[in-house]
Fold this sequence. Notes:
Blueprint lengths: L6 H16 L4 E5 L5 H7 L8 E6 L3 H8 L3 H7 L4 H15 L3 E7 L14 E8 L2 E8 L4 H22 L2
Parallel strand pairs: 1-2, 1-3
Antiparallel strand pairs: 3-4, 4-5
Amino acid sequence: MPQDATYPTYVLAEELGHLLMAHGQTVTTAESCTGGLIAGAITDVPGSSSWFERGFVTYANSAKVDMLAVPPLFLETVGAVSEPVVAAMAQGAADAARAQWAVAVSGVAGPGGGSAEKPVGTVWFAWATPMGIETERKIFSGDRHAVRAATVQHALRKLIAFIKDNQ
Length: 167
């Protein structure tokens, strides 16, 4: 088990794995601003291949459309960092991976790229659950590394909570 700054993330990913294994379920990821860090945290856990088959890093808008079936109109009208896009990413990932659970993130990690409407640190989350899609917007402080680390931890914490509440 890692004993550095990734330790809390490792513990969360390990707990996620125990929950999924107990119910014979799987999870997938659809990541933009984290660039695969959530999938990386999951695959740090030995044996994760029994509950995590694949994840999707869709940094470019074209990848969101091609890999996750995000409607281009969403990207054109509200942008990648938005509730409709992240919800479509989560559903697209769950469908493509045939997973019961999915988490998707899209945000502005910085240092540039922010706006008055979507400042640096803005992240949209979506979780595809057997009961439907849940979404949330958060604004994290700190540099690029801090925003991405907070995003990974929040994504895993909420996924664990949804699984516990729905089992």
